[in-house]
Amino acid sequence: MKIAYIIYNGITWLDFIGIYDPISRLKSMNYIPDLTWDICSFTESIADNFGLEIKPNKINNDLSDYDVIIIPGGFAALNLQTDTVFIDWIKSASEVNYKISVCTGSLILGAAGFLKDKNATTHFDAYEILKSHCKNVSKKRIVEDGTVITSGAVSSSIDLGLYLCEKWAGNKAALAIQKSMDYSVKV
Fold it and tell me: For residues 176 and 149, what is the distance between their CA atoms, to the nearest angstrom?
């Protein structure tokens, strides 16, 4: 399995790290030993609103080579949903098996057309905005509709990561990963 994590300027890093950590343990704990990922962006350098910077290892690459794309949220997602050049890049993932978002990352999935006729969720302050991109906005923490999976506000990123661990490697793996993270919330 090959994952593309999509990062962009104005991202909320916890949206990214919260899902990245449990999923990376699928590999490090040998549940999915052939799991690989790239940190992908449209620009060379990415920073959040406070200046914390992470450099991607793939820039403006074709996203069609992945099995999964994961788009974290951030304040910038509000503007990126109308950035046609950025959204065209995201659309290169149209044939990817799983399209996943955390928080306002769902606005980017929606702008790319991936939420059409789907149920989805996002940050509670963006429910109204999401309505124009999907069939139904849910207030659930995690919403799976076919091969699209969306989650709510920032803290849901860890829950979504563990949810995906269970989906891809089973309950035993998810519980072991949850325990290794000392995460006591029941997901």
Answer: 22
